[in-house]
Every structure is written in structure tokens, then in C-alpha cells.
């Protein structure tokens, strides 16, 4: 009976689940975490009151090209990165509370340097040296409130904001900067406010 119900669930007969941007779901995460220690990382998130800001299975997704690179689908950041994890999650928490980001899916977070190279990430990527998230917004979502937040509060948050040709949004707290499709500030959908501009 369980097998039959599982089959119906997977077929979408019992529940019409929303389409996911990434195949690495909670079920796959549960399989992976059985062989990989995540307890200390979870405890750090709980102690910092940041557990649940992003579902853990999304927060630990490695690069989307993990299969092509023969890597793990999920990765726990090294302890040396955990302060940056907290900083980026505090920012995401604020963005949610302020309704700047109300709905999104994290599709890539920490990447070890080897996977980052294979996946074509920047040499000094914040995904490897600090902590960054690449996320997808729903098709109906307006990214302009995110831009306005970056213009007003990006400097004190040390916030990096980028958007790739795929539509993915990159957020980190590893340096105040922005970029767009050609990885330069000039192609960003979000430009710094001119001196004296109304805020």
C-alpha cells in the first residue's frame, strides 16, 4: 500500500505540487544526509535563530552542475564559512520580513573550489570563500524591490547582488557590488543611486 501511495504522490495524482526549479528535493536530501553529518550545522542555525529561513535541503544545495562535475548534490560549508552563512541568512530573513523577497527557491549555495571550477564559477566566487545563494524568483515576481533595497541598504549589509542571463539572482554579504549578464556592473538591472538622488 505504501508503495502505491508513493507512486501516486510521485505521479502528482494525490497532490498537485508546484513545479520545482531544481530536482534536488527533500526526499533526495534525506537520502544524502543519511551518509553526511549535518547535526552541527543545524545546531548552529538553531542557536543563531536562523533555522528555517531557507529550507535546509535548499540551503545545502551545491552547484546545479553537480552531476556533470561528478560531485555531491549537497554540501555543508566548512566551519570557517559559518559566520558568512549567518550573515547571508540574516539578510535573507530581513528581506523576507520586509516583503522584498516573499517567494523564492535557492538552487545553489556553498560550493567547494573544485566543483566551482568545474561548474564555471568565478575564480574568487563568494560561493567558495564566504557564503552566497543563487535563487530563482517566481515568474510573477518583480525584482525591483530587491534593487531598491540594495541601493538603500546594500553598503551597510556589504551586499552583493547579481542577475545572470538564466534569470537567477545571486545574493551574498561578501562585498557591496552588482553585476548583470556579462558579469559587469554596467549590465546590472540595478544601478547605484546617483549622488543626491531621492531615496
Automatic annotation (TrEMBL):
<dbReference type="InterPro" id="IPR009045">
    <property type="entry name" value="Zn_M74/Hedgehog-like"/>
</dbReference>
<keyword id="KW-0645">Protease</keyword>
<dbReference type="Pfam" id="PF08291">
    <property type="entry name" value="Peptidase_M15_3"/>
</dbReference>
<keyword id="KW-0378">Hydrolase</keyword>
<feature type="domain" description="Peptidase M15A C-terminal">
    <location>
        <begin position="106"/>
        <end position="172"/>
    </location>
</feature>
<keyword id="KW-0732">Signal</keyword>
<dbReference type="InterPro" id="IPR013230">
    <property type="entry name" value="Peptidase_M15A_C"/>
</dbReference>
<feature type="signal peptide">
    <location>
        <begin position="1"/>
        <end position="21"/>
    </location>
</feature>
<keyword id="KW-0121">Carboxypeptidase</keyword>
<dbReference type="GO" id="GO:0004180">
    <property type="term" value="F:carboxypeptidase activity"/>
</dbReference>
<protein>
    <submittedName>
        <fullName>D-Ala-D-Ala carboxypeptidase family metallohydrolase</fullName>
    </submittedName>
</protein>
